[in-house]
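Appendix C: a fully annotated inverse folding record. The material below is reproduced so that readers can follow the format used throughout the book. The structure is listed first as C-alpha coordinates, followed by the designed sequence.
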Protein backbone atom coordinates (compact mmCIF):
# COMPACT_ATOMS: atom_id res chain seq x y z
CA UNK A 1 0.00 0.00 0.00
CA UNK A 2 1.18 3.47 -0.84
CA UNK A 3 1.72 5.74 2.12
CA UNK A 4 1.85 8.92 -0.01
CA UNK A 5 5.53 9.63 0.41
CA UNK A 6 5.77 8.34 3.96
CA UNK A 7 3.15 10.73 5.31
CA UNK A 8 1.03 7.85 6.63
CA UNK A 9 -1.89 9.14 4.58
CA UNK A 10 -2.80 6.06 2.57
CA UNK A 11 -6.13 7.45 1.38
CA UNK A 12 -4.66 10.41 -0.53
CA UNK A 13 -3.78 8.46 -3.70
CA UNK A 14 -7.20 6.80 -3.63
CA UNK A 15 -8.97 10.15 -3.28
CA UNK A 16 -6.90 11.59 -6.13
CA UNK A 17 -7.70 8.73 -8.49
CA UNK A 18 -11.41 8.83 -7.59
CA UNK A 19 -11.49 12.56 -8.41
CA UNK A 20 -9.88 11.84 -11.77
CA UNK A 21 -12.23 8.96 -12.54
CA UNK A 22 -15.30 11.05 -11.64
CA UNK A 23 -14.30 13.41 -14.45
CA UNK A 24 -13.05 10.71 -16.85
CA UNK A 25 -16.26 8.68 -17.09
CA UNK A 26 -18.65 11.50 -18.12
CA UNK A 27 -16.00 13.15 -20.31
CA UNK A 28 -15.31 9.81 -22.00
CA UNK A 29 -19.02 9.28 -22.63
CA UNK A 30 -19.43 12.82 -24.02
CA UNK A 31 -16.37 12.71 -26.30
CA UNK A 32 -17.22 9.28 -27.70
CA UNK A 33 -20.54 10.74 -28.86
CA UNK A 34 -18.81 13.34 -31.04
CA UNK A 35 -18.19 11.69 -34.46
CA UNK A 36 -15.15 13.85 -35.23
CA UNK A 37 -13.42 12.80 -32.02
CA UNK A 38 -14.89 9.30 -31.49
CA UNK A 39 -12.38 6.82 -29.97
CA UNK A 40 -9.69 9.50 -29.59
CA UNK A 41 -11.91 10.88 -26.85
CA UNK A 42 -10.79 8.05 -24.60
CA UNK A 43 -7.21 9.27 -24.89
CA UNK A 44 -8.25 12.82 -24.09
CA UNK A 45 -10.36 11.77 -21.10
CA UNK A 46 -7.56 9.55 -19.77
CA UNK A 47 -5.10 12.45 -19.95
CA UNK A 48 -7.58 14.73 -18.18
CA UNK A 49 -8.12 12.03 -15.52
CA UNK A 50 -4.40 11.78 -14.75
CA UNK A 51 -3.94 15.56 -14.77
CA UNK A 52 -6.75 15.95 -12.23
CA UNK A 53 -5.40 13.11 -10.06
CA UNK A 54 -1.93 14.68 -10.17
CA UNK A 55 -3.23 18.13 -9.28
CA UNK A 56 -5.22 16.76 -6.34
CA UNK A 57 -2.08 14.93 -5.17
CA UNK A 58 0.00 18.10 -5.44
CA UNK A 59 -2.55 20.25 -3.61
CA UNK A 60 -2.89 17.74 -0.78
CA UNK A 61 0.88 17.28 -0.57
CA UNK A 62 1.43 21.03 -0.25
CA UNK A 63 -1.34 21.34 2.37
CA UNK A 64 -0.03 18.46 4.47
CA UNK A 65 3.67 19.25 4.30
CA UNK A 66 3.81 22.98 3.68
CA UNK A 67 6.58 22.53 1.13
CA UNK A 68 6.92 24.84 -1.85
CA UNK A 69 7.30 23.13 -5.19
CA UNK A 70 9.49 24.45 -7.97
CA UNK A 71 6.85 24.40 -10.72
CA UNK A 72 9.29 26.01 -13.15
CA UNK A 73 11.71 23.11 -12.71
CA UNK A 74 9.21 20.26 -12.51
CA UNK A 75 6.62 21.42 -15.03
CA UNK A 76 7.62 24.28 -17.34
CA UNK A 77 11.13 23.16 -18.26
CA UNK A 78 10.16 19.53 -18.99
CA UNK A 79 7.09 20.70 -20.94
CA UNK A 80 9.23 23.03 -23.05
CA UNK A 81 11.82 20.30 -23.67
CA UNK A 82 9.01 17.89 -24.61
CA UNK A 83 7.61 20.38 -27.11
CA UNK A 84 11.04 20.92 -28.69
CA UNK A 85 11.59 17.15 -28.80
CA UNK A 86 8.20 16.58 -30.43
CA UNK A 87 8.87 19.12 -33.15
CA UNK A 88 12.37 17.73 -33.68
CA UNK A 89 11.05 14.15 -33.99
CA UNK A 90 8.42 15.29 -36.46
CA UNK A 91 10.99 17.02 -38.67
CA UNK A 92 13.51 14.17 -38.46
CA UNK A 93 10.88 11.56 -39.29
CA UNK A 94 9.56 13.36 -42.37
CA UNK A 95 13.02 14.30 -43.65
CA UNK A 96 14.13 10.68 -43.33
CA UNK A 97 10.90 9.41 -44.86
CA UNK A 98 11.39 11.74 -47.83
CA UNK A 99 14.87 10.28 -48.42
CA UNK A 100 14.18 6.66 -47.43
CA UNK A 101 10.43 5.83 -47.28
CA UNK A 102 10.50 3.01 -44.73
CA UNK A 103 8.15 3.78 -41.86
CA UNK A 104 9.66 1.56 -39.15
CA UNK A 105 13.26 2.59 -39.72
CA UNK A 106 12.40 6.30 -39.92
CA UNK A 107 10.30 6.02 -36.76
CA UNK A 108 13.04 4.26 -34.77
CA UNK A 109 15.67 6.78 -35.85
CA UNK A 110 13.34 9.70 -35.07
CA UNK A 111 12.59 8.24 -31.62
CA UNK A 112 16.27 7.82 -30.80
CA UNK A 113 16.96 11.34 -32.06
CA UNK A 114 14.11 12.55 -29.85
CA UNK A 115 15.67 11.02 -26.74
CA UNK A 116 18.96 12.77 -27.53
CA UNK A 117 17.15 16.03 -28.28
CA UNK A 118 15.20 15.93 -24.99
CA UNK A 119 18.33 15.19 -22.99
CA UNK A 120 20.27 17.98 -24.77
CA UNK A 121 17.43 20.46 -24.36
CA UNK A 122 17.01 19.70 -20.66
CA UNK A 123 20.75 20.11 -20.21
CA UNK A 124 20.91 23.45 -22.03
CA UNK A 125 17.89 24.94 -20.22
CA UNK A 126 19.32 23.62 -16.97
CA UNK A 127 16.44 21.27 -16.34
CA UNK A 128 18.86 18.54 -15.24
CA UNK A 129 21.27 18.80 -12.38
CA UNK A 130 24.50 16.86 -12.16
CA UNK A 131 23.03 15.05 -9.16
CA UNK A 132 20.07 13.95 -11.33
CA UNK A 133 22.31 12.65 -14.10
CA UNK A 134 24.49 10.69 -11.69
CA UNK A 135 21.40 8.70 -10.66
CA UNK A 136 20.87 7.55 -14.27
CA UNK A 137 22.46 4.39 -15.64
CA UNK A 138 26.00 5.30 -16.73
CA UNK A 139 25.49 8.70 -15.06
CA UNK A 140 29.18 9.35 -14.45
CA UNK A 141 29.94 8.61 -18.10
CA UNK A 142 27.10 10.89 -19.23
CA UNK A 143 28.49 13.77 -17.18
CA UNK A 144 31.93 13.12 -18.64
CA UNK A 145 30.43 13.17 -22.15
CA UNK A 146 28.49 16.38 -21.46
CA UNK A 147 31.64 18.10 -20.28
CA UNK A 148 33.62 16.67 -23.20
CA UNK A 149 31.08 18.14 -25.65
CA UNK A 150 31.44 21.56 -24.04
CA UNK A 151 28.14 21.63 -22.15
CA UNK A 152 29.76 21.22 -18.74
CA UNK A 153 29.06 24.85 -17.91
CA UNK A 154 25.39 23.94 -17.62
CA UNK A 155 26.11 21.50 -14.80
CA UNK A 156 27.34 22.50 -11.38
CA UNK A 157 29.27 20.02 -9.25
CA UNK A 158 27.14 20.74 -6.17
CA UNK A 159 24.03 19.41 -7.91
CA UNK A 160 22.44 22.80 -8.54
CA UNK A 161 22.10 24.73 -11.74
CA UNK A 162 22.09 28.21 -10.27
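Designed amino acids, in order:
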Amino acid sequence: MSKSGGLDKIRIPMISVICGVLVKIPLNYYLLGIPEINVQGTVISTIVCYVIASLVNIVLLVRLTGIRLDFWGILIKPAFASFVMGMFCYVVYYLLYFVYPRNTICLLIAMFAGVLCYFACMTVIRGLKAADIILMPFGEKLIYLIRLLGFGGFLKKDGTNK
